[in-house]
Write a structure and sequence with these properties.
Blueprint (H helix, E strand, L loop, with lengths): L4 E3 L5 E4 L4 E4 L13 E3 L10 H7 L5 E5 L3 H6 L6 E3 L4 E4 L2 E7 L15 E7 L2 E5 L16 E5 L8 H11 L3 E5 L10 H8 L5 E2 L4
Parallel strand pairs: 3-4, 4-5, 5-6, 10-11, 11-12, 12-13
Antiparallel strand pairs: 1-2, 2-3, 7-8, 8-9, 9-10
Helix pairs in contact: 3-4
Length: about 210
């Protein structure tokens, strides 16, 4: 079922759920598809909350989900009626089960835990898909249950490929798709280096 998942750049993810198109952190969008039924925002950095790219994919009736700490930011961008979540909260949007999970740095200053920024698990077609957002390999996420994980590996602002592989080996998804490397941060070689460190039995697929 991973053929329904595409990654444009960084953490700009699209999931074609049939009746529902889901986007995470739209960025670098070509054209103006205006196809998103749900847009998830993980945090407020420019490569994750791009008002210009959001306008290219939103349409009348698009529902937004974002960290509770971003309410003023979204409203100032003309986005009203969003679903605001804190780590650990669950909801349902357009019939899609949603879980908000923590995304933060342990030692680096870029994504403080106190900001309440998020990754998300959405259930599509009976499969749990985890879009991690910008995060380190934090202990409370090691027990998450997911079938597919989209994990940042580029380092600097998130875990690097070695840390990401160790995290994935604890998480044990059926499939992992590495993201957030090869453009703003990380090198193209990080993907293959990551694959070599992931345990047998976990399928690694590339979208970047």
């Amino acid at each position: 079922m991973t053929d329904i998942i595409t990654v444009n750049t960084q953490s700009s993810i699209r999931i074609d759920g049939g009746d529902t198109v889901i986007r995470f952190d739209p960025l670098g969008i070509s054209g103006e598809p205006h196809d998103a039924d749900i847009i998830f925002i993980t945090h407020e950095h420019y490569d994750h909350f791009s008002a210009e790219d959001i306008e290219k994919v939103r349409k009348p009736g698009t529902v937004f989900a974002a960290p509770a700490s971003m309410q003023k930011k979204l409203e100032s961008a003309g986005i009203t009626g969003a679903v605001y979540l804190k780590p650990g909260e669950k909801t349902e949007i357009h019939g899609i089960p949603v879980e908000a999970v923590p995304a933060y740095n342990k030692l680096k200053p870029f994504h403080p835990r106190s900001n309440g920024w998020l990754g998300y698990i959405v259930t599509v077609g009976g499969k749990r898909i985890y879009a991690a957002g910008d995060t380190d390999a934090v202990k409370e996420n090691e027990a998450l249950k997911c079938d597919v994980a989209l994990i940042p590996i580029g380092g600097t602002y998130t875990m690097n490929y070695k840390e990401a592989a160790a995290f994935v080996n604890k998480l044990r998804p059926g499939t992992v798709i590495p993201i957030h490397y090869g453009s703003i941060v990380g090198s193209r070689s990080d993907g293959e280096n990551f694959r070599r460190l992931v345990d047998d039995g976990i399928n690694v697929e590339f979208r970047l």
